Structure formats: C-alpha cells, structure tokens
Hints:
Order of helices and strands of chain A: EEHHEEEEEE
Number of helices of chain A: 2
GO molecular function (chain B): metalloexopeptidase activity; zinc ion binding
Order of helices and strands of chain B: EHEEEHEHEEEE
Protein name (chain B): Peptidase
Pfam families (chain B): Prok-JAB (PF14464)
Oligomer: heterodimer
Number of domains of chain A: 1
Strand content of chain A: 25-35%
CATH class of chain B: Alpha Beta
CATH superfamily of chain A: Beta-grasp domain
CATH architecture of chain B: 3-Layer(aba) Sandwich
InterPro entries (chain A): Beta-grasp_dom_sf, MoaD_arc-typ, Mopterin_synth/thiamin_S_b, Sulfur_Carrier/Prot_Modifier, ThiS/MoaD-like
Organism (chain B): Prauserella muralis
Radius of gyration of chain A: 12 Å
Largest sheet of chain A: 5 strands, mixed
Amino acid sequence: xxxxxxxxxxxxxxxxxxxxxxxxxxxxxxxxxxxxxxxxxxxxxxxxxxxxxxxxxxxxxxxxxxxxxxxxxxxxxxxxxxxxxxxxxxxx
Amino acid sequence: xxxxxxxxxxxxxxxxxxxxxxxxxxxxxxxxxxxxxxxxxxxxxxxxxxxxxxxxxxxxxxxxxxxxxxxxxxxxxxxxxxxxxxxxxxxxxxxxxxxxxxxxxxxxxxxxxxxxxxxxxxxxxxxxxxxxxxxxxxxxxxxxxxxxxxxxxx
Lengths: 92, 154
C-alpha cells in the first residue's frame, strides 16, 4: 500500500527538507512506523503513549483520523496522509 | 536573528476589528503571503476559534486542512498567525509558546482587555524561545525595501 505523506514545515528537518514522502502501511500507525524506519525521530513528534499527540492533526485524504480510529485508521493505496500541527494557544 | 514585522495598515485594522468582534472570546487567524522569502503578509484569513473560549483558541481541524491546501495551491505560507488575549497583555502565554509550531511565522498578539486602546505586538517563537520584534505599519508595500543595499528611510 503506497501512500503519499505530506510533511509540515516544522518536521521537514527529519525528512531532509522534503515536503512529502512516500510510505507504505495499512493503517496510520504502520505508515508512521514505515516513515520512522527511514526518517528517524519523526514518530516521537507525532505519537506519545501509543496515541497521536493532542496538538498534531493527521488526515487521511480529507478526514481527520481522530474521528476515524486514530492511529488505527485505515489507509488505501494512493491515499494522501497529511500531517499538520494544530494552530492553537491562548491566555490560559 | 533580528527581524521586523512589516505589515499594511489595512491588515492591522482587519486583525484588530476581528479581535474586537469576537471579544470576550479569543479571535484567531492567518495572514498568508507568497512563499518566496519576501516575508510579506497579504491575504487576510480570519479563522473560527473552534474552542470558542476567552482563554484558548484552536483552528478547527477541517478548516486547518482547507487553509493549508489553499496556501499550498497558491504557493503561500502563513506569514502571520494572530490571536487575541482578551483579559491579559499581548504577550505569549506558556500555552502559546508550547504550542507554537510554525518557526517562520510572525506570531501576532492583540490584547483587547482595554475597550479603548488595543495592544498589537509581534513575536517569533522557535523551540520554546520567544523573541519580540518591532512592528512597522506601512500604507503599502510598493516602496518597501527590496534588498540589503537599500538605504533605510530616515
């Protein structure tokens, strides 16, 4: 299962500046593990305690995986996985 | 790194108006600009604060994806990321610093705690380090410096 993964600016230090990388896997977790095997350090920026970081958004095509099984969300051949850090903050 | 935010007056006015309109909740948004190193904020994109809170803001995740796809298609980058503080000063909170994840953006903070006078300040936030920068408000970018050999205006 080959998918294209779009990498946000802040994580491109892990991909040699590449905006997107190819990866394989049947779920988001497998895709992340596959990228990690070539771009070490990326996984720790996305996953903590076997869950996606609260302030990292991952989408399969147009769907936020938080509403589709999180790391277990399925991906299919030709899908685009987009990683975007949340834009958030506040006085609290 | 010494930086300055050079920004058109109408964009400053648009940010402040958005912050006033959403007060007492925090307002947030982006000013996109060309991804060519010019560091020029151009396209005002107010965002919905999905948290609808006086002490927290977060772009809606669907809107966030749409925004980044749009910017990608237009060869744009988020030159300015702004939000308001409605009861405190226009300085990044610990939460703001922890969650800042666009190292090339100017983080603009507007305080609306005073109903008459707003504060409008800009920062770089990189790896947990906050650096305030001057804000230069211009009427137009037409006469902006275009290179390092330009003589700054007196």
